[in-house]
Write a structure and sequence with these properties.
Distance between the termini: 84 Å
Helix content: 25-40%
Number of domains: 1
Number of strands: 8
Radius of gyration: 22 Å
Largest sheet: 8 strands, antiparallel
CATH superfamily: MucB/RseB, C-terminal domain
Shape: elongated
Structural class: alpha+beta
Number of helices: 4
Order of helices and strands: HHEHEEEEEEEH
CATH architecture: 2-Layer Sandwich
Length: 172
Amino acid sequence: MPRTTSPPHSRAALHPALVALLLLLAAALVWARGTPPFLGWEVARDHDHCLRGTRLRARLWTSEPAEAREWLESRGTPVPPLPARVGELTLIGVRYCPLADRIAAHVFYGSERRRVSVFVLSGPARVADGWRGEFGELNVRLLRSAGRTLAIVGASRSDVDAVTRAFRSSDA
């Protein structure tokens, strides 16, 4: 019985177009990952994750800025000077958090009922100093301090603004 060949499938004809589309999508994702809205979404999501429930997820519990800074820097993350207190908010502890596309140092500040996160971001960030956004009920502020990109997240805009001012005043 003679062998017949079947005509090329239309999927094969779409293959170059599909590859081009996937490459375009990958390039868009790489570009978007350093933009303020993407960074804001990343840190708001992690703030919510780390502060959900009653148990805070710090790896080092300390109210001493020098101890927190030493712990982070010994793991390769240079950080700006950390204030011990901002108004009623005090330093609680630190940890590292996996974000969508990077690892960030996560510094916790809080009082009895309020919490603010300060993220020291690694990786690319195209941040205009002072970017502000809202994600659900969370306020996010992005800024540069001591050569680092910081993201400050909290439910209270006044708390986020106070922590932002504290890091700006310590920027030497």
